[in-house]
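Worked Example 4.2. Consider the chain below.
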Amino acid sequence: MSDPVSAADRTLLVRLNRRSRAGIEELCDDLGVTATAVRQRLARLTDAGLIDRRPVSVGRGRPRHLYGLTPDGRRALGSNYQELADAMWSALSEVEDEKVRAFLFGRLQDTLVSRYGGDSAGEGELLQRLAGLRDALEVHGFTVEIDDSGPLPILREHHCPYLDISEDDPQICELEQRVFERVLGTGVSLTRCCRDGDSCCEFTPEGPALTHLSPANAGVTP
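Applying the procedure from the previous section yields the following C-alpha cells:
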C-alpha cells in the first residue's frame, strides 16, 4: 500500500496539525529549514488540497497568512491505515448474525487491548500507563502526546486513521475509547474528536485507576 505523501511533507503536516494553524516562521523553527523550502512544501500541499491558507490581520500593512490542514490533509496523515481499517470495519459491520457480530467486535477489542497494553494493561500509576499507551500507539504509526498541565492528564491523538469510518459510523470512536479504558484501567472521556472537525482527538481519564474493565462491561454494542 503506497503512501501518497512524502516523508518530508508528512513531517510538515504533523507539525502543522500539532499547532492547528501556523505561519511560515513557526514552521521554519519547527522543521529547521529555510523559508524557501517551507514555501515550496506549502505550495505543493496547498495544490494537493491538503492544507489551506487564511489571512490574519496584524495591524497596518499586509496581512499575515496562517496555514492549517484541510479534512483531506487530516485523512492523509492516517492514509497508511485507512484502506485496511475501512475494509475491516465494513466486513465486520456486514455480518448479519448479531451474536457473531458481537463476538467479532469483542475479539477485535481484545486484540487492540493486547497490542496497546500487553500483559500490563491496567497496572501501574496513571501517568505510567498513559506513557505506555502513548509509546505503543507511536510504534504503530500514531502521532500522540500527553498533556499533563491540567488536573487530569490528556492523551492527544494528532490524526485519526479511522476518520472516514467515523463519519459514517461513530461506533469506531467508541471502540477506541473502550480499548483505551481497558488499557488504562479507568474510565476515559472523548473530549475532542476529529469527526467533529477538531484538529485532534483528546482522551481524558476520569480519575485514578478504577476496577479493571473487563470485555464484558467495556464492549461496544454492535
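Strands lie at 21-22, 51-56, 64-69, 144-147, 154-157, 188-192, 201-205. The chain is about 50% helix and 15% strand. Compare this with Example 4.1 before moving on.
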